[in-house]
Amino acid sequence: MAKHTVTLIPGDGIGPEITTAMRRVVEATGADIEWEIADAGEHVMAECGTPLPDYVLDSIRKTKVAIKGPVTTPVGTGFRSVNVALRKALDLYVNLRPAFSIPGTGARYDDIDIVIVRENTEDLYAGIEFEQGSAQAAELIDWVAAKGAGAIRPDSGISLKPISITASERIVRWAFEYAIANDRHKVTAVHKANILKYSDGLFLEMARHVAAEYEGRIEFEDRIVDMTCMGLVLYPEQFDVMVLPNLYGDIVSDLAAGLVGGLGMAPGANIGTGCAVFEPVHGSAPKYAGKDMANPTAEILTAVLMLQHLGEHEAAEKILAGVRQVLAEGTHVTYDIKRTNTGSTDGAVGTQAYADAIVATF
Ligand code: NAP
Predict the structure, then answer these.
(1) With CB atoms counted within 10 Å of each terminal CB, which end of the chain scores lower, N or C?
(2) Any catalytic annotation for residue 338?
(3) Cβ–Cβ under 8 Å, residues 109 and 260
């Protein structure tokens, strides 16, 4: 078995607990992983003056593979998202977020198997923003008016939504290649091109352009994002691989997590040409921090994606089978799974006891 060095970012809130659980489960498979711990987040800010010290990026550039817990981002003010900064710095242009049913979660559906491919580098997440009342915002508002492009209220804050040919083409191509490599049959491009003609319109144009190359091999369709949300709730079986610009991808993947039992069940990966950073969809859930309550399944399934990426398929399968067995038995599950199954959290086990139950299946 090959030895792998992986950068581990425990993160904020519930991050340290769920990454500890993940690490114990991965190590129990026998996979030979050396963890290089390089922490980031709100708690690192106090010590280092930045939530994302250089040593984190240096470590990932060296190991090429990282797994992280969630990192807190202050709302409205304060430092910008560490997650967005990581994705930009390492050009992790793919955010892969599979949503699949596992019996025993008490989810509303039991037959979901959807893969969300979210563009990760631009759109409203590009971080190009102009604060209300700033000189730059006023200048931009005047410029737009002078060009006859529209009237923006003078007391506005502004966030730009750039969508490029380059990023749209490569994310859609990645989605099609993923579909082929994983025996999927359809790619759905999601957009709001009827309203946002020059941004989402360009995304759709590039999606159609790339889809033409795969005609006869992979089915293609496009859908408007609002109808997509309704469709996901009413007829989720219509979806296979979905490719979306950044913001819609973020929102729709939480919706998809809801279909399979909640955020505690939703894994994810950020993938670029050189490196990959694996992280669950959910955030740092600060109210559960330090309470040994959070569900580590999303983090553990995130490790499954990482092990598959590393070619450690046997270890990945072992974990997946263990998670399935423990959830199906339903006795050693965390509060959220107990709640969806019984309406009460009575009898739930903690984060580490749940990991123990998975390890016991090996
Ligand atoms: P959140 O941390 O995802 O938590 C929202 C709710 O989802 C929780 O209160 C809990 O619901 C449920 N949940 C999330 N993770 C769970 C788990 N492992 N087990 C069981 N339930 C879980 O979202 P948030 O409160 O909006 O965000 C908190 C912070 O995380 C923010 O600073 C945000 O910016 C950040 N964030 C980071 C990332 C990342 O690092 N990739 C991603 C998203 C958000 P119940 O209370 O109903 O049980």
Answers:
(1) N
(2) no
(3) yes
